[in-house]
Amino acid sequence: MEALLSIVIGLLTACGVYLALRGRTFPVVLGMTFLSYAVNLFLFAMGRLTIGQPPVIAAGAAGYTDPLPQALVLTAIVIGFAMTAFVIILALKARAELGNDHVDGRGRS
Amino acid sequence: MPLYLIVLIPFLGAGLAAWGARFGRSHSAWISGGVALSALAGLASVASWPFGGETLVQTHAWLPSAGVDLAFRLDGLGLLFAGLILGIGLLVILYARYYLSERDSLGRLYAYLLLFMGSMLGVVLSENLIQLLIFWELTSLSSFLLIGYWRHREEARQGARMALAITGAGGLALLGGVLLLGEIVGSYALTEVLAAGDIIRAHPLYAPTLVLILLGAFTKSAQFPFHFWLPHAMAAPTPVSAYLHSATMVKAGVFLLARLFPALSGTMEWTHLVGGFGMMTLLVGAYFALFKHDLKGLLAYSTVSHLGLITVLFGIGTPLAAVAGVFHIINHATFKASLFMAAGIIDHETGTRDMRRLNGLWKFMPYTATLAMVAAAAMAGVPLLNGFLSKEMFFAEVAELSPEMRGAWLVPAAATVAGIFAVAYSLRFIHDVFFNGEPVDLPRTPHEPPRWMKVPVEILVALCLLVGVLPALTVGPILDVAAAAVLGGPTPEYSLAIWHGFNPALGMSLIALVGGVLVYAGRAPLFRLADRLAGRNDARALYNRLLEALLAFARGLTTRLDTGSLQRLVFAFVAFALVLGAAGWFGVDGALTGSRATLPVDGVSALAVLGLILASIATVALHRQRFIALVLIGVVGLVVSLIFVKFSAPDLALTQLSVEVVTIVLLLLALYFLPQSSPAESSPARRGRDLALALLAGGGVGALTWAVLTRPYETIAGYFLENSVPGGGGGNVVNVILVDFRGFDTLGEITVLALAGLAIYALVDRLRLDAPDVDPEGRAWSRDTHPAIMASLTRLLLPLALLVSVFIFLRGHNVPGGGFIAGLITAVALIMQYMANGVAWTQSRLPANMHPVAGAGLAIATLTGLASLAFGHPFLTSTFAHLDWPLVGEFELASAMAFDLGVYLVVVGATLLILIHLGLLHDARPTKETR
Q1: CA B890 to chain centre
Q2: Residue B670 and residue A93: Cβ atoms within 8 Å?
Q3: CB of B402 within 8 A of CB of B409?
Q4: Which residues on chain A are in Cβ contact (under 8 Å) with B695?
Q5: Domains of chain A (ranges plus CATH)?
Q6: How do residues B130-180 score in pLDDT, each as one tens digit?
Q7: Is there a contact between B703 and A41 (Cβ–Cβ < 8 Å)?
Q8: What ipTM was reported for this prediction?
């Protein structure tokens, strides 16, 4: 299972980096979304993988997974949304001001 | 009155004075005067301590771990300086009221003045050296504002910038020196530093420490070769010059010398550096002062020269010299402040400060002339005035300087030459301005200034006379305690008498007086010589060249590094991170795979991951068809939330799911205004290069994850798991961490969220976008209004969805849920109304103005935190109780719940703020029908 998750995180990173290197704003935003998936999963995985032991205190629970990375990642997801929103609006603003959606503001259209 | 309050009063007063200016010029002046007076009264209330021979130290813990406390200290030296700062400050406030014209904002000047006053008080009353440094920087900043007060004038801006650059750079050096000093002594408390003089002087780091601290002091006190900023600071209004360059700003440097005298003095390095640079400054300043045609320029260079004199005295290092140094600080402050004020009156009444035009003013303003003449005589060192006394002490000290040294006669000779020039320029100030023929082409016909403009000058000149005639009675006690504080021990025997008999000092004084008269009488050839030499070896030119070179270097570096291409920068960034990561990788041996047992793979997981892999690859492959890519990335997000479900993170899964929904909606809204497809721009080579980098980065991160996941680890989670129920009153540990254990972090995060919402609102405001009327295939957008079934369904679902979000919110403390998730669910439910029913329908029922919601959320969260303060607990301490709620059963009420409510509201407010305003753009867009 660990191998599977490593592959997933690696793949998400690769997709994110490739898209972040594109020249138009929209793919770059998608790339950032990929990267935030990867980063969130990576942070989450720092607490190692546990199946069926959520960090909710209950009588007779066999054990609990590490709640700390989860708390960190939970806010990271929400902040990640705010960041994506900000970037996409910035992209819209840039298009309105510059007349094109190239990341350097010098594309053809 | 506690000492911190004395320092704080001017800072608070600054705001008050600026505000008071709305009601009239006099209000602002009265307020400022009142502020200075109340601080002075506060000082008086504690003055008995230093006079009783004790040092008052008040410490308030601030960052004890870093050795930084808010600590204040009042000893003789601090008292003397604080008294000068406040006393002369009060006179300057009165003077400025009449000096400044109606066009200039008096409130702004007073606010800056009071800021500066507070900063200076902080410097002289600090016990902690780091704190002293902070106030030191504040004086640099506030003097920048003061010098640049007439911001429409080029030379004011330049002068202010130069002063800031020089004193700021010196402050940086001082920071280094103070840190070294703290390292050597092991404490930043002055009491301990001053007591550790022997350790400091014997330490191998003594020399660099000394040099760095002296750099700070010399730049501030305009010592050669940093003296050139001071004459340029004359672009400030004259009250500012009178304040900054007599009693305060430039005295901060010599204050530092005096303050650290017991800790640093008494070595060859000290004597040579401090004495040598002081002597250079004394001579250079005196020389240039004579040849300045600008009245204030003369005073500026004479200030430089007198600061050099004080520095020499501290450099000599004997107890008597230190007493003389302190004495001259007092005397210089009084006569120089009055001279600046007199110069300001002359400027004010005649409209010029050029001494080639100012002549024969005696006829027009005899009263002012008398005052100015007395003050100038004090500056020259004429007997029966205060300047004479300290200058005599100075001459006596240099005359007795180790005569066995080779070339020892040079020092008294140089001192006498400086004395000659001081007499000559003082004489010029008197003769050239008030006599010497008729005024030349003055802009205004001069007359005596308003009554109250003269009062500050009168007071200061009276002090010059009183101290000059009755030194022991007037200045004796304060000089005693101040000198004792400088020496860190008993004051030596000294006599404040006017007549000491025939001795070398008297001879030097006489030579200076006679020589000065002669030099002034024969000034014509000297002026011609000076004119020819002018412009050479100008320190300012060097400064300008250095500044130009620095700026050119910065520009060159920036253009080389930042080519304006984001793609190239991102590439460099990722490649650099990759290189760093790889370097760490190859540095250590050991297997990639650790010893931790891995979990078995099950079929469903494998299938889900396969779906994610396919969707990811497809997103990248099809990214130029943007709509399809967006749909595909939604699939990726869903699988990511499934991963959270699988690995025991229900809260994360819920959050990811709802965030996924709002993100996709957001991107869809945005996509409408962007081209529907990306053009194929990149060459195959470039795509290959990017792909290679992406694969390397992905491979690296994947390998890193694998390496971490297969290794055992230590966690601090035990504490949270054990204390969640007894300490936080909730079973859902993730939620308890968010709203209780780490509530402060969460408060920061929701603040960021609210700010992002506001920033997006600001960006969207007045944004005009052209959206296509047809899709990429040339088909017009569907004009179908909102599908009836979906509209009805979402209306029906809304209460249900809201109920779910309330449920999720309430249960969040114990089982998966909580403010974040509930907020997102609410946002999704409301957004659905917009999508299904249209903007018009929804807006008539739901306000688009979501700022208050987010603001209320932040307020609730913060107030919850503050409430615990009110009960005497640290910020954001939570409490809880179990209540019995009829019908529902036992119900837990935690104060963290209120905090979570704040979180909920911020999430709802910010999310809706973003989405609604982006959605409104569609509505505002001119459509074909309306065009």
Answers
A1: 53
A2: no
A3: no
A4: 14
A5: 2-98 (1.10.287)
A6: 999 999 999 999 999 999 999 899 999 989 999 999 999 999 999 999 999
A7: no
A8: 0.95
